[in-house]
Amino acid sequence: MKRLLLTSTAMLALASTARAEVTTPVTVVELIVTATRLESRIGDAPGVRVITAADIEASQATFAGDILETIPGLSLSRNGDFGGVTYVRTRGASADKTLLLIDGVVQNDPSSPNGGYDFSSLDLGDVERIEVLSGPQGSLWGSDAIGGAIAFTTREQEGWRVSVEGGAFGTVRGSAAFGVSDDRRAFGVSASSYSSDGVSKAANGTEEDGLTSWTVGANGRLTLTDTVRLDGRIRYNEAEADIDGYDAFFTFGDTGDRSKSRSWTGFARVTADDFLGLNQTLDVSLYDLKRDNISAFSSRYDARRATLRWTAGRGGARDPFAFLVGIERDDTEASISTGATADLGASSAFGVVRFAPAERVSITASLRHDAPDGFDARTTARVAGVLDLGAGLTLSASAGQGFKTPTISQTVCDFCFPAGPSTGLKPETAEGWDLAASWLSDDGRWFARITGYRLKVEDQISYGVGRYVNIDRTLTTGIEAEVEADLTDRFSVKVAYAFTDAVDGTTGAELIRAPENAGSVTLLWTGERLKAALTVRAEGEQADSDPSTFSAARRDGFTAASLSGSWALSDSLDLTARVVNLTDEDYQQSLGYGEAGRGLFVGFRLRN
Question: Does residue 46 have a cis bond before it (omega within 30 degrees)?
């Protein structure tokens, strides 16, 4: 099987030399990021990484976790393939400390005990780009962004497209989208579906545990005058997954348990340019989730969130001075295990400013004041600077703060014994910094960056003896390294590596599910008709918890690979194929949970 991986690598390398052309300078596309609240060039936004639509298409990734696991500093915690509960950890912080946004709408689950987001059925069929902000982002997004924030932007479709794929494990997926767009108006709809028989969620199981999921979305935009615009988006997802758990004797393995979720999210926004001298927006966003766990001890959870936000600012991404200020009100309601509901909310004000005090210096600063209902108000800050040294060399640094209020479950002390609300539970707080050096070649073909960081979380909330309690602190120190190179006009390579030392600051014990060493290598071939991508991903061993004994244990390291490609049959029709787990590695992403073996999938993409 290792020979198969080496052969695939060699084929891509031979293809690059067989059709290599004389290298010529390429035009460097300047990326603009928006999850930083204030539109910025990516070079002015330390710690930000962008996954583009082209990256998603090249990898043929189905769900978000399939592509996020290649970003340095992110680690995946998945309770089995094909719909197992999936969390993303950023820079060693626990899974509840990564904030997820879709089109600017917060998606974290208020009905979950820790408030984290389950990425297992987050379909990429309508996603245009993903922005990953590492490090505390409390001054931008408030609570829950201690480790970082991940922002998804859905696509504004022009024309139509259809894709269908089928293959191993009884898997069938498809997507379709249609839209019209011009300078004054746009309207589009999209739909995607996925069904698979899957594999056993429990590594010691034998039955197939499948997943079905479908997503629909719509977007609209209308220019009322030369300065006033309306736009909005809505997205609905429904998923059902077979999950393994514990039998009557509390033995972990095959069970008939299932999970079902239904969620919708959306926003409506009015934008007025140069109104009273400022570019202003007013938007309302809504989120609704219903989650069922079907087993011998079935339960149902509901969650709702509504956010009203106003912003005003001046200056664009390329201007030497720009700022944005805003206020928002967030109201959240969720049910707990007893079926009772409770609510939390917060009123907030924030500001971001970017300026260039010298020709090669850019500084960005942000400040936010949050007044959560039921907890003391918090003010968080962040400052970042970029220094262009010339010859393609850049130094950047940032320091920021974050906080996380107790969730609804933690506030009312759900699952606590004796029952009763929590008393004296404090919000978690965090401080972090990073320092990076990067280099971009004159022709834009080579890029390299190395980042060192530290993240400290204090008063982390944990479940103690029958109740939620604050523990002293956790500490993560790490290094992230990246290299991207266009070796020829058609052949490129991306390399990423992360060293993560995540420990309990009091005991020195390793934090679970944060591998100390992780990395990936992606080889990309972009020909006139053939496009192919080979990704090899490796993780070292990590501290974990054994689901059968609930005791501390270690999960072995692994190396897994995937190969994807497409062949253009015409200008509008592509034949696609991909192989997951190319070497048929027997591994576990999380200890005790099963992952799929090698599988082949073929399909087509049709577009106008």
Answer: no
Q: What pLDDT digit, counting tens, does each position of 392-436 carry?
A: 999 999 999 999 999 999 999 988 888 788 878 899 999 999 999
Q: 570 with 552: CB under 8 angstroms? A: no
Predicted pLDDT of residue 11 = 37
DSSP state of 140: H
SS3 string of 398-444? Answer: EEEEEEECCCHHHHHCCCCCCCCCCCCCCCEEEEEEEEEEEEECCCC
**Cα–Cα nearest to 290, from 256, 257, 265, 267:** 265
Residue type present at position 92: G
- Classify each residue of 577-600 as buried b or exposed e, where b means 16 or more C-beta atoms within 10 Å of its C-beta: bbbbbbbebebbbbbbbbbbbbbe
pLDDT band of residue 29 (cuts 50, 70, 90) is low
* Per-residue pLDDT at 191: 97
**Tokens representing 339?**
């079926």
What is the CB-side half-sphere exposure of residue 191 using CA atoms within 13 A? 2
pLDDT band at 289 (very low <50, low <70, confident <90, very high): very high
Q: CA 426, CA 208: separation in Å to the nearest integer?
A: 43
Enumerate helices (H) and strands (E) in the chain, giving the number of each: 5, 35
Q: Which domains does the chain have, with CATH numbers?
A: 2-607 (2.40.170.20)
Kindly indicate the confidence band of residue 443, based on its pLDDT and cuts at 50, 70 and 90: very high
Cα–Cα distance for residue pair 117/99, rounded to 1 Å? 8
